[in-house]
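Quick illustration, no need to memorize.
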Amino acid sequence: MLILGRPAWLAHSVLRWLGQISYGLYLWHYPIMLYFRIEGLPWREVLIYGLALALIFASLSYYLVELRFHKPIQRRQGAMVSGA
């Protein structure tokens, strides 16, 4: 239903940004939250601090690492479309 209906709220900028950094969130959230759990923080603080740090680390890794690999692909796809 979501694919066929294409609801407008899916195009919201925050959701698109979360989609872009989602792989980094997947990679970073567990070690960060595990560290806070080992340090003995209560679960609520683990969730709040872990989510905040995971968002920061994921966005840094997206903009500093992942984009370097996306740009050559985008250039190649643009060249294929233009026929060069």
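The mean pLDDT is 85.
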